[in-house]
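To: structure desk
From: M.T.
Subject: fold request, one chain
Message: Could you run this one when you get a chance? Sequence is below, nothing fancy, just the single chain.
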Amino acid sequence: MLRLFNTASGRKEIFRPFEGKLVRIYTCGPTVYNYAHIGNLSTYLSGDFLKRYLRWRGYQVRDVMNFTDVDDKTIRASREKKTPLSDYTAVFGQSVLDDLQTLNIIRPEIICPATQHIPDMVRLVQTLLDKGYAYRSADGSIYFQISKFKDYGKFANLSRRQMKTNASGRINSDEYTKKSVSDFVLWKAWTPDDGDVFWDSPLGRGRPGWHIECSAMSMKYLGPSFDIHTGAIDLIFPHHQNEIAQSEAATGQQFVKYWFHRGFLKINSEKMSKSLGNVYLLREILDHVSDPMAFRYLILTAHYRQPLNFTFEHLSAAASSLNRIRNFLTRLADCRSKPESLTAIKNLLKTSKKEVITALNDDLNAPQAIASLFGLINAVNKLIDQNQIGDKGRSLILGYLHDIDQVWGFIFSSPPASTSSSEIDSLIQERQRLRAAKNWAAADAIKAKLISLGVTIHDESTGN
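Reply: Done. Structure tokens follow.
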């Protein structure tokens, strides 16, 4: 039975969706004012791992991710570049989608840009006004009054005194006039700094605040109450606390059942920051390793709730571990032994699957699950050494690995968009040429690459 750590309760809980085997998940996506950095991507990888595991265990997953394409940062950056907001954000939105594909992250079923959901936000703000949870300030902006929501701060474990004195260090006292330093904006009245970015609505000319965007879009597609909300740990306060307050104030229902937060990603033991020059993009770290699955491996094989220290040495070690799997696949592909120990193989696979499920049922204990995979590899290698694996055994093992790779997503990585079928054919032909020339090392290198792309290699002759 799956148990997940729920940020709301601060403990592991048995996972029970609201509605049978249907799991509704919302992911706080990127603010598309710049390229996504590896900290952002580590959060999306952890969410992808969770969704893959749920699907593997027979759940139907309905997942939604937002793209914040209107806020202070996007407006400021687009105006500095003298580019229309929609044109400016489209570039970075597409770059995020490209990164998701590169890392074999399954694209969410629904991706919702904020600018395409302004009417939904306006309706939600109006509901909060009607119910007395929001008020209009002197400049025309509309704020959520946190003193009206009795449980405000409970989710983030903050007292009212901490929030008023900014003891958490997380309150953003912006320039908008409001009743309390902790009240947050729902609708920002237009100012000249916004330029041509505004919407004329019953609320007045302006634009939505950041927090209201996620509530409006998640509830539009998943309903007033849904199962899982994912995001980075630094979003717990104020963003996720504000989402809870405005959503539950509007509907009177529980907003989210389970909150799933990814731990911090540090760079060389330091917090990622522009001032330190350690904010890395995916393409920058891929200058150090050729296979993007090395980064996927590094993130997924650590526990998602634990802080992870990224270094290029750790990335290189992840690439080496991944190569162990690739080399094992290459070795397995050549097994032709007769007779073979099918009973021993079936027992190994049964044990391995049970160990993986036991580990991942315990709050996605990925380190224990990956240890089970390497335990299986070591055991199978011993059977290969003893000439006890043939065609049937190889087929059983490969079938099992394809099965669990529905969760891992790095054992048989999909060919990147740049790898066409003609290029794969060229690799196969080049390998045949190298084999004919008895250049076994180069031929094996191409074979490993083809296997990593999901191409099945079957050589009629024995040996290399």
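Reply (cont.): The domain at 3-263 is CATH 3.40.50.620 (Rossmann fold). Let me know if you need anything else for the meeting.
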